[in-house]
Design a protein that fits this description.
membrane, 43% helix, five-stranded antiparallel sheet, 15 helices, alpha+beta, elongated
Amino acid sequence: MPAIPKEWEEFRESSDFVIFHQSNHGEPYLICYFKSITDINILNEQILDYISKNAGLPFDELFESLPIAEKERSSDWNAIRNKLLRGYAAIGHASNPATMLVNACLSKGRVVSKPEIEFNVEGPKEALVESLDTNLNLIRQRLPVASLRIKELQVGDLSKSRVAICYIEGIANEQYVQTCLQRVGDMQFDSVTDITIIQQIIEDNSNSIFPQMLGTERTDRITWSLTLGQVCVLVDGSPNAIIGPVTFEHFFTSYEDYFLPWIIGSIIRMIRITSVIFSILASAVYVAVLTYHGHGISNTFLPTIIASRINVPFPPVVEVLIMELSIELLREAGARLPSKIGQTIGIVGGIVLGTAAVQAALTSNFLLIIVALSAMASFTTPVFRMSNTIRILRFPFILFAQLWGLLGIFLCTFIVVTHLLRLTSLGMPYLVPFYPFRPKSLTDTLIRPPYAVFHHRPAFFRTRNPVRYDKEKAKLKKDIDD
């Protein structure tokens, strides 16, 4: 009977660890596994049953004929331990010093469902799930090409999380690929449970409030980005992926824009960009005008503003901060509560607090309208992390407006733009193609152009193959009715 290796004793303290001998006509096999992460049906029906029926085979022949695709032999205890902790079953025999490791992993997780954050009306309704293998399967199905490369790494001293880095060979710039591989491979962290942890660690400037890699849960957006020459990073256990390098304008582009006619998509994109600018500046301009530049208010609006503020005891900056913080409080409370209760809190709380604040003369009707519009405008940002940045960015503008009026707003804008000019994403300038100026790459920025001009990939990605299709050959093709 094979003796139990002393190294395996550390597992026997766990109640879900199973170790036993299976007797056959000859020397019995030593079998061990973790029942919490091992599929018992696979173990009994495909592994143990086959071993019982083929007990007379030598250990090596039994290993070769075992009808399981993922299997290996090893004498290294570290490799055996890692496989056991991944759901493998370890099978030992006295006639062979090596241990047979057979994949019997128990797979539990969500089925593929609709996107919950990046919701869309047009286009595919398919989102990532927590299983890395499932996510890679979804990407492979959309990109069935041999040039799609997937490099798998293991990060986290305790979590041993599987991380996959995807790119298309022959399109993606090798420098961006190697930069991403190096940063992920050099990570020193004990537990990596979500892709956002990796994003914060590998970003070029982790002290910036601006995200430098694009997070997404949509498989169609991932495949589109891969065809443009970008790199995608996924981690087992996270229903999101990050894409890089990216530019500032990518965070204000919804992938649904490409499913709409280009004129409609361009108009919606312009509305979205205008809304973001309004969300940042509206409250700050209100403070600046009422504090320093009251003479610039039109005589048409002046009586209305005076009437709305005549009983308000606070200066404009205090009034604005009260309303902005109330909106943030309602937004945070609604996000942390269950969905149905959160919606009720947001609607009822907004109406009740807004009405009560005006009646109690804590704020003016005019400001209530501005803050409400500003809050709604901030929701037009299609990327959640950039939406949070826009929310936070309003407060420095309000404080600068209180200190120096419109000059303070221009000064704060100068500081933000200077910071953006210094940012990079995997080494690529954050504000490209505006800075450095690349006129040929301005096509898909402020407007969504027709597909007829998508014959080249964006030049700032420095792809190895910049041509998507031959423009001249495309013009030669006639419609069937011509």
